Amino acid sequence: MKMTTLTEHVDSSWANDPAHEGLGSVVKAIADGARQIQAKLQAAAIADVLSAAGGVNVHGEAVQILDEQSSDTFIRLLGESGSVAAIGSEEVAEGVLVGDSPDHRWVVLMDPLDGSSNIDVAVSVGSIFGVWKRPPNEPVTPETMLRPGSEQVAAVYTVYGSSAVLVAATAGSVQGFTLDPSGGGFRLTHPDIRFPEKCQYYSVPDGYYKNWDAPTRAAAEMLRDTYSLRYVGSLVADFHRNLLKGGIFWYPADTKNPDGKLRLMYEANPLGFVAEQAGGAASSGSRPILDIRPEKLHQRVPLMLGPAGAVERTVSILNT
Ligand code: AHM
Ligand code: MG
Prior knowledge:
The protein is built from 7 helices and 15 strands. By secondary structure, it is an alpha+beta fold. The chain has 2 domains: about 5-190, Fructose-1,6-Bisphosphatase, Chain A, domain 1 (2-Layer Sandwich); about 200-320, D-Maltodextrin-Binding Protein, domain 2 (3-Layer(aba) Sandwich). The protein has an 8-stranded mixed sheet with strand order 4-3-5-6-7-8-9-10, with helices on both faces. Bound molecules: 2,5-anhydro-1,6-di-O-phosphono-D-mannitol and magnesium ion. The site of magnesium ion has 4 residues, from strand 5. Magnesium ion binds next to strand 5.
C-alpha cells in the first residue's frame, strides 16, 4: 500500500497557503534532523558517544554528548531552511538569532533531545518543537521568542523508540508519521489523531510524593485510584503513548521544584498545543498552559496534559 510521505503531506497542506508560507521547509528540516538523530542514537554505544559532554547547561544539568549534537543538528538544519528567524533551544542560554529578511518568517523553540536520563539505557527519547510566526516588519530580538503558547501556529514532536515517529499539529489537525526504515522517509501512518476521551493511564512521578503539598497528594491519589500507572520518564514518550491510548501526564510542582520541572516554552507549550488540537487539554493546575504569558526562555511550569475530562477532574481536586 502506498502511504503519503511527509513531503507530499506538507506540500499539499501548505505549499499554496500564504498563512503557512515557509512552514513546510521548517517541518522538513525537523524531519531531516530527526532521521539523523535516530541514526546517531542507534549507533551511539558503538560510536562511544553515550556520555556527558563535560559541561553544564543553563539549567545546571550535565550536558550529554547527544544533547549537544541534537541541538547543533537542528539549529543547523533549521537555519539552512531559510525560513527561520530565531531558534531557542534547551541547550542554548540565549537562543540563536538567524536572520530578519522577509523570508525569515518563523520562530522555533525546541527541546532537541528530551528524556536525557534514558539516552544510555535504550529507552525512548524524542525532540519537541513549538513554531510561532515572527511578527512581520519587527527586528528579531530575544523578545521575539517570548510569546504565549496560544499564538503557536504549529507544533511537532518526534519519538525515537522501537520505531521513529513524528507528530505534526496545526490548527485542528494532528498527523502522525513513522520513519520507513528502508529509506523512504516519514510516512503518514496515524492520520487525524484525536485524544481518546476515555482515560486509562496516569503518568505521574509519584516517587516525589513526600515533596508534594496536600492538594497535590489528593489529586494524585485520585489518579492512582482510578487509572493504571505508566511512567517512562521521557515526557515525549509518555505523552505519545497517552495521546494514542488515552492517558493523563502530570509533573506537579514540589518542594524541590516549586515552579515545576518542565519548561514552558519548548516542552509544555508545544505538547499543550498538540493536546488541544487533538481535543485534549493542557493545564498548569491553575490555568491553561497556552494562556501563560512567558517571562523568560527557560522558565519552568507544572504540567498536566491529557483527555479534557481527566484534566478537568484533576484540576478541580487540586483546587479544592
Ligand atoms: P530533559 O529535557 O533534560 O530530558 O528533562 C525533562 C524530563 C522529561 O522528559 C521527563 O518527563 C522528566 O524530565 C522526568 O523527570 P524525573 O526524572 O524527575 O521523573
Ligand atoms: Mg525535556
